[in-house]
TrEMBL record, chain A:
Superkingdom of the organism of origin: Eukaryota
Natural source organism: Eulacestoma nigropectus
Gene Ontology biological process terms, A to Z: hydrogen peroxide catabolic process
Globin domain segment(s): 2-142
Family statement drawn from the similarity comment of this UniProt entry: Belongs to the globin family.
Keywords annotated in UniProt: Heme, Iron, Metal-binding, Oxygen transport, Transport
Protein name: HBA protein
From TrEMBL, chain B:
Domain Globin: residue ranges: 3-147
One Gene Ontology term of the molecular function aspect: oxygen carrier activity
Function text: Involved in oxygen transport from the lung to the various peripheral tissues.
Source organism: Eulacestoma nigropectus (wattled ploughbill)
Transmembrane segments: none
Similarity remark: Belongs to the globin family.
Protein name per the record: Hemoglobin subunit beta
Subunit (UniProt): Heterotetramer of two alpha chains and two beta chains.
Keyword field contains Metal-binding: yes
InterPro entries reported for this sequence: Globin (IPR000971), Globin-like_sf (IPR009050), Globin/Proto (IPR012292), Hemoglobin_b (IPR002337), Hemoglobin_oxygen_transport (IPR050056)
Keyword Flavoprotein among UniProt keywords: no
Keywords tagged on the record: Heme, Iron, Metal-binding, Oxygen transport, Transport
Amino acid sequence: MVLSAHDKANVKAVFGKVGGQAEELGAETLERMFAAYPQTKTYFPHFDLGKGSAQVKGHGKKVAAALVEAANNIDDIAGALSKLSDLHAQKLRVDPVNFKLLGQCFLVVVASRNPSLLTPEVHASLDKFLCAVGTVLTAKYR
Amino acid sequence: MVHWSAEEKQLIAGLWGKVNVEECGAEALARLLIVYPWTQRFFASFGNLSSPTAIIGNPKVRAHGKKVLTSFGDAIKNLDNIKGTYSKLSELHCDKLHVDPENFRLLGDILVIVLASHFGRDFTPACQFAWQKLVSVVAHALARKYH
């Protein structure tokens, strides 16, 4: 699966529009993921996952920043997220299936906040981008 | 049998009452074909699927999308027996249509995104949970008679 020039442009356009609210988007993505897929909470036993949790907000900010970084370096996502990829492989070891769940929730957040932004073509590009990010983060797992 | 809390039933039925089945169904199926182009393999007879514009405007896509989402309505009316509701459709999708059940999961996720885009903030995390559960149960029921 390869990101075309068109995909890259679409992704950059999305982050151009929503990048300013990246922290909120990240926090809401996590909130939705924990709500819609309770099994994802197993990776955060040390967190307060209640509504408005400062830890979830803080972590959402980190997740969003990584997505922004990947979008800003879309020609070399593997390079941009190399350290994060090491972290996920060696320390976090989040099962690969969960990246898809996070991706789904990110798309839901963008759809609910900016429906006009998420045209079918942009939806396709963003979905591919999120898959690419997940692939990079799990690339060194074995 | 799947257990639905009163809240989940409310969240599902409440939203469903406001859904334009024809529009949402058409949009969900079109997005499936656009976002996951390999799903077009099942629709060779639908004519022009050569671009997102062609897919969105394709009357067969619209009609089929409406049909698919209308059947969701049957599940919602029979939340306590989704398995039974989809038994024959499951056999059909296996024996006649030869559809990989993974496609039901893909369509379900797309439907959730379409609902989010239509209902915005009203599509709360709790609402998403109920609907992700519903689409998952429907996908499971449709795969149940596969052999």
